[in-house]
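TASK: fixed-backbone design
INPUT:
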């Protein structure tokens, strides 16, 4: 009986992962209900996927200045790093338009990320400032490009700059209730807290028969922004790419 339940659960999970992979969108509430044992996590953790949490990465004043600047530039559901483009189906948040003022305000955060992660600035995608209101959430998803799918392989962004190896999320405010970033497989949820930085790995290296190493989606990185239940949630998301901006893979 227990085995049957476990098998049923892993079948459902496999089906869900396929669904995410296809980039279609399943019912978010149903997905959220599947992590009842998720525990709140505060501190620095190394687990699978590799997840690190650092408190005090941003000073309180830096957080409030970023929120103040971004508040003036909010656009609903915009999903790319230019603050232009189409609505993101899986995310119910608004994204701030990246005006020169906001880009300047983000510079210290980006500088600190390059030092922490040991990568040049050219490997950071444009940082996005996102705001979720009550009920706002981001469905279970992967940040890495699925390069083994036809769509992923032809993705211009992926060809220029390569895979998204890491995600960093800086939380700009405390959220009274909800809004945790949850990892499905690790059963961990990181609570939003002003100044806290979360970094996790999205991709794992695989060597192909031709001897080339490519980074594939790390399936353990399946994660979501859980619904905000009270207050608002402000974050800055910055992806770290495999190669500097615009650089194509060597032939
Ligand atoms: O809002 C969150 O906590 C998660 C955001 C996220 O998953 C992302 O930007 O990829």
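OUTPUT:
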């Amino acid at each position: 009986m227990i085995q049957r339940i476990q098998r049923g659960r892993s079948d459902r999970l496999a089906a869900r992962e396929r669904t995410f992979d296809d980039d279609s969108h399943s019912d978010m509430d149903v997905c959220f209900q599947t992590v009842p044992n998720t525990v709140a996590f505060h501190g620095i953790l190394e687990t699978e996927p590799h997840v690190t949490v650092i408190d005090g990465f941003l000073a309180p004043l830096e957080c409030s200045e970023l929120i103040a600047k971004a508040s003036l530039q909010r656009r609903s559901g915009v999903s790319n790093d230019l603050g232009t483009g189409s609505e993101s189906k899986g995310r119910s948040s608004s994204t701030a338009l990246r005006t020169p003022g906001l880009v300047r305000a983000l510079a210290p955060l980006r500088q600190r990320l390059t030092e922490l992660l040991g990568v040049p600035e050219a490997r950071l995608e444009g940082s996005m400032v996102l705001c979720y209101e009550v009920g706002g959430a981001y469905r279970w998803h992967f940040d890495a490009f699925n390069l083994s799918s036809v769509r992923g392989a032809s993705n211009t962004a992926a060809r220029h700059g390569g895979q998204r190896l890491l995600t960093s999320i800086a939380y700009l405010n405390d959220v009274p209730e909800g809004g945790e970033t949850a990892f499905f497989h690790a059963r961990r949820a990181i609570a939003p807290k002003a100044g806290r930085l979360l970094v996790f790995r999205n991709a794992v290296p695989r060597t192909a028969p031709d001897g080339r190493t490519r980074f594939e989606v790390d399936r353990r990185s399946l994660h979501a922004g859980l619904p905000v239940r009270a207050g608002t949630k402000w974050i800055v998301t910055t992806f770290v790419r495999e190669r500097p901006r615009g650089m194509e893979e060597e032939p």
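COMMENT: The helical segments are 2-21, 28-32, 60-71, 100-117, 150-153, 156-159.
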